[in-house]
Predict the structure of Sec-independent protein translocase protein TatA.
Amino acid sequence: MFGFVIGWQEAIIILVIVLIIFGPGKLPSIGKALGETVRNFRKSASETDTDNGTEKKEQ
């Protein structure tokens, strides 16, 4: 969609950086907030697709 893919090496590097910056205690709350954000974004995108009269492709 955006023209880039994050591999497992990049994901591990990002996770290590997040652990260093925020510490392991805040990691669950950060993950929860990120999950809720992604869920709301997908819900909004889905509602926009149905508002435009387009059908979602089944994969």
In short: The chain has one domain: 2-51. The chain has two helices and no strands. The chain has a mean pLDDT of 82.
